[in-house]
Specification:
Order of helices and strands: HHHHHHHHHHHHHHHHH
Strand content: under 5%
CATH class of the domain at 54-135: Mainly Alpha
CATH architecture of the domain at 54-135: Alpha Horseshoe
CATH superfamily of the domain at 54-135: Tetratricopeptide repeat domain
Distance between the termini: 39 Å
CATH topology of the domain at 54-135: Serine Threonine Protein Phosphatase 5, Tetratricopeptide repeat
Radius of gyration: 23 Å
Helix content: 55-70%
Mean pLDDT: 91
Shape: globular
């Protein structure tokens, strides 16, 4: 259900043709770095991260700005190398100085999400704006996010919508999802479920898992359409197949409560566990509930408490209340 601002990396290949003998040697290096960069992406898209990392490094050392950005990203994600935010930032800075608009956006992201640097939303906005000026579409979407949430700028839904629509016009899929969200929840516009569904469907055409989830949620809740749990489940599965933990949680909930499917507590626990393994605090809380009530598992208050505490630590706003209630219940016996 959440909309997320996006991390920024682009599949940009620089084509530089030599025009004088004096420049030919430099251009040969650039051309080779581009070939290396393309080969690196072939490995990256196959999840062959160790090979991709070595090739991106080689291209980056030969001056390819987008390869510098990708080396930074791989340090940021711990793909093919050790996760290292400080080193990621250094590579993003190198890439930005060398002309990568995606690297500029990623510097903004690091400040936005406090990855390797103290959180500084004002600096994040500044870097996103630099990336926008350099032509980065993801940064346009992220400016919408900052205005929608009042991070680094005064909250302004109209400006947020303007940024999202600007990104959507450039084909940014997540921006389309975010426009749908604003219509669904009436942020700066009147609630309009038809418009929300329209924009979610546009994003879903581009396989955005958040959009799959949001369509499923609207169908489950009957927002602008008839409630249909089976169809909701189908959309949730599309999102879950892409690793979207909120969808896994909701699949578990439908199985737990027998909505559109036969009640199946074992299946519910399976999906909650998948989501919890990805850090989903709602699923952690739901697992706690199943242990507290003995749904599909042996009733166990201690295990329930463990899961509620995990949920609280992961940021679940209701977990503290569940812990308090369960502790009071235990004192009665």
């Amino acid at each position: 259900m959440k909309k997320l601002s996006v991390n920024c990396f682009q599949y940009i290949i620089l084509a530089i043709a030599g025009t004088t003998l004096f420049l030919s040697s430099c251009n040969l290096i650039q051309e080779n770095s581009n070939e290396t960069y393309n080969l690196a992406f072939e490995h990256y898209n196959k999840n062959e991260f160790a090979d991709a990392f070595k090739l991106f490094q080689k291209a980056a050392n030969n001056g390819n700005a987008e390869a510098m950005n990708m080396v930074g990203r791989m340090y940021q994600q711990g793909e093919g190398t050790t996760l290292d935010y400080q080193t990621a930032m250094k590579w993003f800075q190198k890439g930005g100085e060398a002309g990568s608009d995606a690297a500029l956006c990623n510097i903004g992201w690091m400040y936005d999400k406090a990855e390797g640097v103290p959180e500084d939303n004002v600096k994040a906005v500044s870097w996103y704006k630099k990336a926008v000026e350099a032509g980065n579409t993801a940064a346009i979407n992220n400016m919408g996010w900052m205005y929608e949430n009042g991070e680094g700028v005064d909250q302004d839904y109209q400006k947020a919508m303007g940024w999202y629509k600007r990104a959507a016009r450039k084909g940014h899929a997540l921006a389309k999802n975010n426009i749908g969200w604003m219509y669904e929840y009436g942020e700066g516009v009147k609630v309009d479920y038809a418009q929300a569904m329209k924009w979610y469907e546009e994003a879903a055409k581009e396989a955005v898992p958040e959009a799959y989830f949001n369509i499923g949620y609207m169908i489950e809740c009957g927002r602008g359409v008839d409630t249909n749990y089976k169809k909701a489940m189908e959309w949730y599965h599309l999102a879950a197949d892409k690793g979207y933990s909120d969808a896994m949680n909701n699949i578990g909930w439908l199985y737990e409560h027998g909505k559109g499917v036969d009640t199946d507590h074992a299946e519910a626990m399976k999906w909650y566990s998948k989501a919890a393994a990805l850090g989903n605090s709602n699923s952690m809380s739901n697992i706690g509930w199943m242990y507290e009530e003995g749904e599909g598992v042996a009733q166990n208050n201690e295990t329930a408490l463990e899961w509620y505490r995990k949920a609280e630590k992961a940021g679940n706003v209701d977990a503290a209340e569940y812990i308090e209630k369960l502790n009071k219940k235990r004192k009665k016996f």
